[in-house]
Amino acid sequence: MELPDNYILIRKEVKHARLRVSEDGKVRIIAPPDFSEDDINSMLKKKNRWIDKNLKYFDGKSSIELKRNQLLLFGNRYAYFYDTTYSQKVTVDHEHKTINSKRDLLDPKVQEKWYRKVAKKHLTIRTNQLAENLNFKHNKLFIRESRTKWGNCSREKNISLNWKLIKAPEYVIDYIIIHELMHTVVMNHTHKFWTLMKSYYPNYKESIKWLEKYGNSL
Predict the structure, then answer these.
(1) 7 forms bridges with which residues in the sheet?
(2) What global pTM score does this model have?
(3) Least confident of 23-32, 39-48, 177-186
(4) Which residues pair with 144 in a beta bridge?
(5) Secondary-structure class of domain 108-217 per CATH
């Protein structure tokens, strides 16, 4: 059967056919072997609005393009220099936006380990600073990875932050931290929550817009 160029048909041993729209603009049709062309056309027609909605959603997002010798830190591109004879493991120059390292930070595993270390240090210090300045009290702080959340606050007032936030601008990091600290007082996203958020962080909407646009790049 003929499908648009961005549509991919995948025959698989599944009970029910399903659709998946990805960030790359591809629409994947996952269907059982006995799912006919008429069945596929009928499903696509039925889900047409849903498909368009999701394609427009991903089309509105932007990616932060990095050159091979660049790393993303605090929303900025840092030039990365790798030298095995360098005396320090990693040195970051925030003024000139450079990173010098005797480690190969372009190796995905090494890079993630380094990012997690930087994130744990910075996010812990910043969370404690903001909690003290804004008079919030939280229990434990965890730096983790989540595919769907930038942060979380439990009923026990334990806060979790996504380590990938270290790649976002500092004003975005502050927003997520304050957002979770706010949940130590108001658990749900009620009108009261957003009213308090506006009083504590008036420009919070700018952070939300940045995450909506570039969050998938982190």
Answers:
(1) 27
(2) 0.73
(3) 23-32
(4) 162
(5) alpha beta
Q: What are phi and psi of 145, to 5 degrees?
A: -120, 135
Is residue 86 within 8 A of residue 100, CB to CB? The reply is: yes
Cβ neighbourhood burial of 5 (10 Å; 0-12, 13-18, 19+): exposed
Q: How confident is the model at residue 112, as a pLDDT?
A: 95
Q: Tell me how far apart the alpha carbons of residues 123 and 193 are, in angstroms, rounded to a whole number.
A: 22
Q: Is 18 exposed, middle or buried (0-12, 13-18, 19+ CB in 10 A)?
A: middle
The domain spans of the chain are 7-60, 70-101, 108-217
Helix (H) or strand (E) holding 11: strand 7-11
pLDDT tens digits for 1-43? 788 888 999 998 988 999 988 766 789 999 999 999 999 999 9
56-66 residue pLDDT tens: 776 666 678 88
* Residue 43: DSSP 8-state: H
Sign of CA dihedral 210, 214, 215, 218: negative
Judge whether 110 and 131 are in contact, CB under 8 Å: no
- How far is Cα 40 from Cα 29, in angstroms, rounded to an integer? 8
Contact 116, 109 (CB under 8 A): no
Q: Place 151 in a pLDDT band, splitting at 50, 70 and 90.
A: very high
132-138 long-range Cβ contacts below 8 angstroms, 24+ apart: 134/178, 134/181, 134/200, 136/181, 136/182, 136/184, 136/185, 137/184, 138/180, 138/181, 138/184
Take residue 174 and report the two structure tokens written for it: 């502050």
